[in-house]
Amino acid sequence: MKELLERHKQILLFIIAGGLSAIIEIGSFKIFSSQLPQFFPQELDFNGIHYPLSNILSTSCGIMTNYFLSIWFVFERGKHSKRKEFFYFMVVSFFSTLLSLLFFQLFYSYIFKSNIDLIFYTLSTEMISKIAAILLVSILNYSIKKKIIFNG
């Protein structure tokens, strides 16, 4: 068992860092999506896009958390300078954000139509869509960050 953990340590650390980043992203999305519509009513439906600012702001919180956790705990420094590494990370994160926003819209508009009651908490369609989008994009992020940014 110890050998298996040692072999997959980086993936396990990535999952932990991703989980913590996802908690930050989902928590901030919950806050933004409940508060921003009070000030910006179009946040609920901006030309067919649901919760655009909440998604962008919460994803940014998750990205910054993930960057610092990734460089501190998950990946070793690659061949790039810190400045280039940060730039590449942000470029990948920008495209990941667009992909995440697309998945969120698809899930929210077409797939998840009702809340999920977990007895102790009810997941709204917004939260289910956000969680599903994060999970899908995380797989792509690990591969790109490991191979291109941190040269692992």
What layout of secondary structure does this protein have?
Blueprint: H1 2-7, H2 9-39, H3 52-74, H4 82-111, E1 116-117, E2 122-123, H5 125-149
Antiparallel strand pairs: 1-2
Offer a concise description of the structure.
The chain has 152 residues and is mainly alpha-helical. It is built from five helices and two strands, in the order ααααββα.
Helix/strand/pairing category:
mainly alpha
Low-pLDDT stretches? none
Question: Which sheet architecture does the biggest sheet show?
Answer: 2 strands, antiparallel
Rg over C-alpha atoms, rounded to the nearest angstrom: 17 Å
Morphology? globular
Q: Assign a percent range to the helix content.
A: over 70%
Estimate the mean pLDDT confidence. Answer: 85
**Number of contiguous helices:** 5
Identify the strand order in the major beta sheet: 1-2
Topology, number of strands: 2
The helix-strand sequence is: HHHHEEH
The span between the termini is 23 Å
Q: Classify the beta-strand content into a percent band.
A: under 5%
